Each structure stands twice: as C-alpha cells, then as structure tokens.
Task: inverse folding
C-alpha cells in the first residue's frame, strides 16, 4: 500500500512539475503577477510530493518489503540497517529518484532564497527547473519505475552488491548528486536570462553562491568516490580515468571555469555570453554523464544495470534541454551585452586564460572518454583510450594552468604590467631551483622535482597574493570570506599537486607468497604475515589476516586484511588493511592461500597519497568558506569593493 | 549570429554521434566473427616458451577463451568468478595473457590463482587483432567444432554467467 502511495505521489508530482514548467513562463510573458507567483508554490509542492515518494521507497527497503521488486533485487533482511537505507540509491531506479528529488529541492530553494530577484527572472528560472523535473519524472515513470511489484513475493532479497556495502557508498552518490544537480540552477538561470535577453552583474552575484554550493558538493562527492575506490576496491589507485569517473570530472572542470567567469561578470560586467554558455555547459555535462552511466554506451569497470530504452530517453532529454538552451543562445546571444575589452596582463586576463585552459582540459577529457564511442559510430572500429593518453594530454594542460594560477591573483583587476610580478619572481627563483635540485638528487627524479616546484610556486604565489590584499597580513581579519575561499582553494590545489606528483613517481608495490611468520621487504618497509584464519560475520564469510609492518626496524600499527565471500551474491571482495599517514600510506591485502603453501600478500607504499584527498577537501572547504561571504548574502545588493 | 550558432552545431553533432553510439553495443563482437572458426594462429604457452599452441586446441570440446593481463584491473573483478567456475568444472577455460610480460602474467596468476587449463601468451596482439579484442577482460565461447559462438566484452558478473553464458555453454555441450 505504501509503495502504491509512493507511485501515486510521483504521478501527481509529474503533473505539478508540468504546471510549474508552464504557468510561470506564461505569466512572465504576459506580465501576469498571479501566474508568476504560482511558480513558487508549485515548486514547493513538487518537492514535497517527490520527497513523499522517496520516503515511501525508503520505507520498502527498511521494512524489507520484497513485494517491491527493487527492494527484492537490491536488499536483504540480513543487511545492516544503514545499508538498507543506502541501498535505496544503490541501484538505477532509486538513484534516479534521488537525482530528481534533488532537482526539485533546488527548485523549491529558489523561491526560498530568491525573494529579492526580479519577479520575471525568478518565474522563468522556476519554469525551466520545473520542465527539467518534469522530464526526469517522466523518465522514472516510463522507463524506471521504482515501485514495480513482484508476484509471487520472494522469501528474501538478493542483497546489495557487496562492493557497495560500505559507508563510502552511503554518502558518495548523494554528495555527487548535490553537485551534479546543483548546476541545474545555473542552467535554469542561464536559460531564463536568455529569454529575458539580459545578463548583468546582479544576476551573476545572485547565481554565484549556487554555483559555489554545487561545486563544493561535487568536489566532496568526487573526492569521496576516489577515497572509496581506493580503499574498498584496493586497486592501488586514486584515479583510474574510467569513463564513469571522467563524466563526473567534466562538470567539475566546467563548473570551476564557471565559478571564475561568474566572478568576472559579477565584478567587471564582462564575459556575459561566455558565462551563460558555461552555465548551460556545466549542467549539460552532468546530463551527458547520466546518459553515459545509464545507457551503457561506453564500457566501464563500473557495472551499472543498463538498458538501451533508458539511453534513448535520456538522450531525448539531453537534446531537448541542451539543444533548446543552445538554440535559444544562438538566437539571443547578441542581446547579452557586457562591457568589452580587457588587457591580457591583468587579473581579469588571467581569469580568461584560466577559463580557456579549463575548457581545453574539459575537451581533452571529453575526447578521451568518447573517442571509442565516436570511432565506433563513424567507422565501426573498436578501440580503447587509457591512462597514457590522459597522462600525456591532461597533465601538461594542468601544469600550464598552475603556472597562471600562481601569478594571476598577484595582478590587479586591470591596468597592470608584468613588472608587478618581478618582486615575487625574484624571491621565488632560489627556493624553486633548490626544490628541483634537491628532489632530483634525493628522489632521483627531475619530473618529481618539477612537480614539487610547481606545487610550491602555487602555494607561494597564493600566499603572496593574500599578503598584497591584506597589506602584508596587517588587515587579515578584515578580509572578506571570499578571499579566504580563494586562498584555501588555491592552497588545496598546491597540496593536491604535491600529492599527485609523489604518487605518480614514487609509489611502490610488491607481491609475494608468505607462510605465517615470513616477511616481504619493500623499500624501507618490512611486512610480516602474523596470522591468517577463517571466520564468519553478519552476511559473509572471511579469511582474516594480521600483517605487522616495520619501517626501518620501527614497528608501525599492524594491518588487518580480509578476503570476504558473500554467499547471497556469489562474490568475493578484498578488504585491504591500511595505515594512512601524512607521509607514506602503507597497505597490504591478503589473497588466496593455505597454511601449508602460504598466502598471497600484496603490499603497497603510497607516498603522500593522503595529500591528494587533503588538497581536494581543502578545495571543497574553500567553497563553503566562500559561501559565508557577506557580499553573497541573498538579497543584499552592495557594490563589490 | 553565425558565431552564436557554433555551440548548438557542435552539440547537435555530438548528439548525432551519441544517437549512433546508442545503436551499437560496445560489448558486441563485429558480427563477421560470430559463427566463424577461431582464426589460424601459432603462439606459445605462458609457462613454457617452447610449447606451441594453435587453433586446434579449441577442437572437440566447448571452451571459454578469456583475455586477461596482469595490467588489467577489471580482470581482478571477474577473476574470483572464473576461479569458482573452474573449480565447479562448469567449462574448460583457456586463458590468453595479452600485452603482458611473461613473468608479470605468471606472478599475477600466482597471486590470484589460475583458473585456466592452458594459457596462450599473446605479447604482440597477434591473436588479439585477429579476434578483434578491444580490451580486457573479454571472453569468447567456442563450440566443439572450434567456432566462435559468443563474445562478451567486460567483466563477467555472476548474473551474466548464470543467466547468459552458462546456459549457452550447456546447450553447446549437447550440440
């Protein structure tokens, strides 16, 4: 009965979302205040209806109601409570429902925070948001109904894929979707601005916190995904350049470009058309990501349930949304006038370069990800593009980006010259040379030295820029939160760069077959297999091993690794034992074996891998700090200093 | 006006490619190889560089040819399933260690177990190109007459094994 209620509220939401997509738009065209005001109420109503529907589905999972097909195929009575809840979005239907729930949540948040917006702009943006929600609700109801019943009802469920039974999964998709879907606000406001034929600094300043919010969540989501893949899958990598990873990364790159161009629009009234285009692109890339993941057009290690009918539907959605928006752009772009002209040597020039590089980077990832698909479509040839392509193309673009990132914030908004960078350049040269030479000598890698030097240069440039803005740190208290956001984000990028450099050059691993008491030596580390014994827990059996680790004869914490067998799913997973550390992260994973012949042990040393996530988390934190800026308070329209 | 059209045109081009891409299943074998005999080849065994293997090993029995490599992370995911299938004697599994070094392939099997009855060592993609292998893991089901009957690209999940591949293997066994 609850499931039917959930289905019913979903159908009601389809109708209210359609009304939200039509009436405010009509009202704005005809300057009819009541029709426009209807948008606010409809947006709230749509959200409440979808939330009820989501609650009904969650209920089916919590109570293990296996007459609901989705619960039967993705849940199990013997599953821990938290995974019963996260199981709701650990499958196609539930995750799309979560997607749509967030779309409606953002829709309902627009009127809540947008009381000071021009009424017609708000009405039009709400209508676009409503149409997007309508499209996704139709997608759910017609191709992926989560409330489908099963008759006869099975005695127990199939259980959630054991790889997904992890706290990482419980939070990874919701965070990611908060980001993905958050860009829908930028999309709706870009389209609304195109209909209005007007983009101004107020528009940009109002939109910026939404982009910041979405971007910060996307950063968190991607980071959690990377951490989860690292320790749960135990593949020894923090990023695989897998298509599914790439499609989450492209909206991030476009979103980062948008964050910077919107800053220029908000303060300098420039880059208007460009910003609108980025607003459309960031969300369109999210849609493309959803298309790729749900249609199975690309081969990925992420095995999602795929169905061509769903692919066709999402492609139609994508064509309608992005095609419509870009068509409108073609018609109206010339009406969006900002101020023109800027000098290359200025902070603004730096931001334009930043945008060009970020978009080139996005295109590079896009090409690498979709090249196999395009080749197949055009010539029928099947090929794969892997890590070497990305290392060769993406890394240099990022390095160039860092070069500009370190220097551009030191410049004034306009009317600056390279001369003002001279002081910084002179002070930075010696430490940079020292880092390169020292790393080349002690780490035996020139490339590693260059990477570290870039990271240091970025950090130094960022701190120098902060010093300039705060008159040599004297007015650091009076600096706006946005400045702290900038400092944290760029420092985060420096930390990230150092981590990536160390990981790509000095990571080590080895495999051996060890009897109990024997050890494996890797660099300055010694791994000793202390014990290995079978056991059983809630919903799996396991082989558990204790591995002690010594570093230069000093004992570190002992590692526990397990190989688990999940009988319900006929699957084996490996839980590696980790010793995370700010310097070298050490981990070991136990494989098959027996007491007589010994057990397979894989040992890894990953220097500074934690810095990668620390850097990424700093960037996400920076976004949230920036949100606290008083100038971004909704409703206040103060000119920026 | 013309400049403003560029994003739309690019997007429509992409959309058209996506649409064509949807009609193609990336995990499908180019149809010309289905129901064709395994191409003629001559390679060596992974563990014995002197032992020659050719297409005749596929004759007279139903087999699963599984393409793997020590560099292939996705292969790790399906490996436990192959181990169990081999232990249950579901089907004879022949491995093809692709674009690998001999010692790396051996070490990998040492670590994760060896489900294969024989392993073709294809360092230079000799057989891989003839078979149209696009990536690893990839698996072919070959009938008693040595004809390719099915190709699966990507990880063999438990569902795919029990619902698709195993039923086909059972049918081919009685053919």
Result:
């Amino acid at each position: 009965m609850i499931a039917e209620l959930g289905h019913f509220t979903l159908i009601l939401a389809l109708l209210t979302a359609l009304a939200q997509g039509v009436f405010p738009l009509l009202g704005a065209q005809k300057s009819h205040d009541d029709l426009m005001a209807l948008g606010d109420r409809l947006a709230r109503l749509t959200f409440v209806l979808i939330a009820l529907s989501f609650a009904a589905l969650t209920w089916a999972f919590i109570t293990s109601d296996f007459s609901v097909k989705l619960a039967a195929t993705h849940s199990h009575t013997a599953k821990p409570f938290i995974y019963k809840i996260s199981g709701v979005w650990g499958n196609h239907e539930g995750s799309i429902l979560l997607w749509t729930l967030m779309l409606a949540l953002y829709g309902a948040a627009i009127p809540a925070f947008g009381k000071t917006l021009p009424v017609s702009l708000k009405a039009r943006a709400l209508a676009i948001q409503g149409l997007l929600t309508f499209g996704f609700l139709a997608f759910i109801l017609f191709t992926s109904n989560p409330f489908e019943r099963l008759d006869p009802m099975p005695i127990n469920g199939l259980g959630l894929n054991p790889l997904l039974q992890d706290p990482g999964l419980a939070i990874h998709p919701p965070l990611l979707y908060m980001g993905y879907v958050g860009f829908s606000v930028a999309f709706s406001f870009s389209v609304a601005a195109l209909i209005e034929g007007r983009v101004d600094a107020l528009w940009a300043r109002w939109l910026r916190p939404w982009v910041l919010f979405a971007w910060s969540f996307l950063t968190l989501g991607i980071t959690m995904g990377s951490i989860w893949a690292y320790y749960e899958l135990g593949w020894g990598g923090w990023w695989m350049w897998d298509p599914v990873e790439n499609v989450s990364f492209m909206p991030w790159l476009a979103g980062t470009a948008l964050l910077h161009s919107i800053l220029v629009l908000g303060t300098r009234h420039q880059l208007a058309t460009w910003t609108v285009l980025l607003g459309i692109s960031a969300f369109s890339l999210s849609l493309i990501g959803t298309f790729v993941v749900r249609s199975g057009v690309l081969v990925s290690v992420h095995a999602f349930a795929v169905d061509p009918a769903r692919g066709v539907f999402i492609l139609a959605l994508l064509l309608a949304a992005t095609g419509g928006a870009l068509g409108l752009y073609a018609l109206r772009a010339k009406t969006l006038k900002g101020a023109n002209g800027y000098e290359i040597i200025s902070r603004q020039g730096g931001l334009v370069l930043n945008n060009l590089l970020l978009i080139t980077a996005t295109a590079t990832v896009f090409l690498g990800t979709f090249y196999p698909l395009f080749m197949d479509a055009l010539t029928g040839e099947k090929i794969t593009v892997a890590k070497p392509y990305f290392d060769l193309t993406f890394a240099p673009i990022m390095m160039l980006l860092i070069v500009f990132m370190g220097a551009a914030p030191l410049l004034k908004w306009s009317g600056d010259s390279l001369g003002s960078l001279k002081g910084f350049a002179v002070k930075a040269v010696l430490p940079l040379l020292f880092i390169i030479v020292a790393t080349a000598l002690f780490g035996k890698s020139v490339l590693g030295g260059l990477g570290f030097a870039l990271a240091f240069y970025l950090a130094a440039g960022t701190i120098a820029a902060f010093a300039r803005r705060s008159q040599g740190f004297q007015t650091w208290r009076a600096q706006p939160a946005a400045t702290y956001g900038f400092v944290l984000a760029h420092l985060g990028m420096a930390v990230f760069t150092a981590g990536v450099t160390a990981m790509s050059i000095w990571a080590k691993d080895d495999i051996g077959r060890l009897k109990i008491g024997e050890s494996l030596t890797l660099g300055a580390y010694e791994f000793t297999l202390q014990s290995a014994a079978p056991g059983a827990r809630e919903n799996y059996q396991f082989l558990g091993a204790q591995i002690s680790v010594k570093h230069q004869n000093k004992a570190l914490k002992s590692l526990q690794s397990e190989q688990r067998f999940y009988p319900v799913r006929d699957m084996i997973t490996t839980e590696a034992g980790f010793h995370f550390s700010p310097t070298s992260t050490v981990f070991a994973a136990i494989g098959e074996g027996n007491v007589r012949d010994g057990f397979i042990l894989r040992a890894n040393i990953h220097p500074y891998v934690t810095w990668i996530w620390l850097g990424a988390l700093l960037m996400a934190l920076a976004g949230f700090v920036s949100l606290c800026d008083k100038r971004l308070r909704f409703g206040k329209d103060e000119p920026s200093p | 006006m013309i400049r403003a059209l560029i994003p739309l045109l690019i997007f429509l081009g992409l959309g058209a490619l996506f649409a064509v891409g949807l009609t193609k299943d990336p995990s499908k074998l180019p149809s010309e190889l289905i129901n064709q005999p395994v191409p003629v080849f001559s390679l060596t065994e992974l563990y014995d560089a002197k032992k020659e293997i050719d297409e005749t090993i596929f004759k007279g029995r139903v087999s699963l040819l599984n393409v793997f490599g020590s560099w292939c992370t996705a292969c790790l995911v399906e490996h436990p399933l192959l181990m169990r299938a081999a232990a249950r004697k579901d089907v004879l599994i022949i491995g093809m260690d692709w674009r690998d070094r001999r010692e790396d392939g051996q070490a990998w099997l040492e670590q994760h177990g060896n489900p294969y009855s024989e392993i073709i060592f294809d360092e230079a993609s000799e057989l891989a190109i003839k078979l149209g292998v696009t990536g690893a893991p990839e698996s072919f089901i070959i009938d008693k007459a040595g004809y390719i009957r099915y190709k699966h690209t990507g990880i063999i999940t438990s569902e795919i094994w029990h619902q698709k591949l195993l039923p086909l293997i059972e049918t081919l066994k009685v053919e």
Remarks:
- The mean pLDDT of chain B is 85.
- Residues 42 and 54 of chain B are 5 Å apart (CA to CA).
